[in-house]
Structures are given as C-alpha cells and as structure tokens.
Write a structure and sequence with these properties.
It is built from three helices and eight strands, in the order βββββαβαβαβ. By secondary structure, it is an alpha+beta fold. The protein has one domain: Ribosomal Protein S8, Chain: A, domain 1. The strands form three sheets. The chain has a four-stranded mixed beta sheet, with helices on both faces. Strand 1 and strand 2 form a beta hairpin. Helix 1 crosses helix 2. The longest helix is centred in the middle third of the chain and has 17 residues, at 50-66. It is globular.
Length: 148
Amino acid sequence: MILCQVCGNDIAHGLPICPFCGGKQDFPSGTVAAGIFHKVVNLELGKPLVESALRKLQMELEDGRQHNLRVLTVIHGYGASGKGGVIGVECRKVLAYLKGNGEINTFIPGEDFRSKSGPTRDLLRRFPQLATNVNLNKGNRGITLVVL
C-alpha cells in the first residue's frame, strides 16, 4: 500500500486513479532507478494533536532519508478558521529549524509551489517529474513540499 498523492489515503501501488478521491497518480513518471523519489505524508489523518503530528513528521523525514526519497509532500491542512491551522504553522516552524541546521535541503509552502517562483523552478529542474504534480500552481496552503 502507498498513499494517494492527492488525498493521502492508502491505495494499492500502481493504481493510476485513487478510488477515494479520483485523483490521478503520477507514480510511473515519478519513479527513478532507486525507487520512488517522492512521497505524500498526511499529518492530518486521524485528526491528531499537534505534538503527535510533529512526531509523525520527524518519523517520516527519517524514513524518507533512509529510503533515499528526495521530496516529501506534507499534508498538514490549513485549518477551518481560514487563518492557518496550528499543525501547519508548527510544521513549518520545525522545517525552518531543520533547514537552518542543514537537516533538510529546503521546503516550499504549497501557496508558493508555483511554476513561476524561483524555488519551484529550481525544484522542477532537479525533479522534472513534479511538473505534473496536482498541487502545482494551485496555491494550496494546506501542504508543504520538503526537499531532503
């Protein structure tokens, strides 16, 4: 089982369309010789407390490093208030800290994941498979891309 790249639900590996949300999966073009370079991590699943979500983020980052992943799309949600969810705010604080310590390469907030932004252009040059990512140019404040 793997996670749907759109909704984060568990789906069978190789399915081109998620049976839960109908989202198109880009696994065939998103693979490299060493395996899949990109993974979607849903921190919102099960509506955890912030501390649990941040522990899951740390575990997924470590797992990504061990499995030689290059990019994680972290689904943290934006919150029902429309002002930004606590998990997303705290997640980005942790990622900024990790970037400062050199533990991750960089991260791109979903609202900045636009083909015309400099960091996204750099990311797409490194990983052209992400050009078909469903979140590109959507301004999705509920996700963050992490480059390991």
